[in-house]
Write a structure and sequence with these properties.
2 domains, Hypothetical Protein Yqey, Chain: A, domain1, Arc Repressor Mutant, subunit A
Length: about 160
């Protein structure tokens, strides 16, 4: 894999697409094209000509990974492990472009810190805590995991 430091996501994707074509890696190619397509769609939907922000890139990538995981779950429930494997393989390729994901202990320490800082107690403060944690951990943890940890610590 080529060193991909301090490049825009679209440039990284273009390089990886060429590499996947050379290697005849259809799963990687399909995943990378999905990323490129989502970025192009995002740029045209907003109608702006300015650069896409890193936060927006993370949102796009996270959404693509989530979609792949949900599809894989559906395929598994329908006993289609062949299709589920393709989806999980694509999710793993897309994850490579996301920031390092935090483990549950790291997420929990951030959640506890925010709960203490905001003097939150009980489920009535769930929305406030979720908003702050999600903003702080943007792209570093998925919302479902964050929600479970916040719920566990607010009881």
């Amino acid at each position: 894999m080529i060193m991909l430091i301090k490049m825009k996501l679209s440039e990284k994707i273009d390089i990886q697409i060429k590499e996947a074509m050379k290697n005849k890696d259809s799963v990687a190619l399909e995943s990378l094209r999905a990323i490129k397509s989502s970025i192009l769609l995002f740029n045209t939907q907003k109608g702006n000509t300015s650069e896409i922000s890193e936060a927006d890139e993370i949102k796009i990538l996270s959404k693509l990974v989530k979609q792949r995981k949900e599809s894989a779950d559906i395929y598994i429930s329908q006993n289609r492990s062949d299709l589920a494997k393709t989806e999980t393989d694509q999710a793993e390729i897309i994850k490579k472009f996301l920031p390092k994901q935090l483990n549950e202990e790291e997420i929990e320490s951030v959640v506890i810190e925010i709960i203490k800082k905001t003097n939150s107690s009980g489920m009535q403060d769930m929305g406030k805590v979720m908003g702050m944690v999600t903003k702080q951990l943007s792209g570093k943890a998925d919302g479902k995991t964050i929600s479970q940890i916040v719920r566990k610590n607010l009881i």
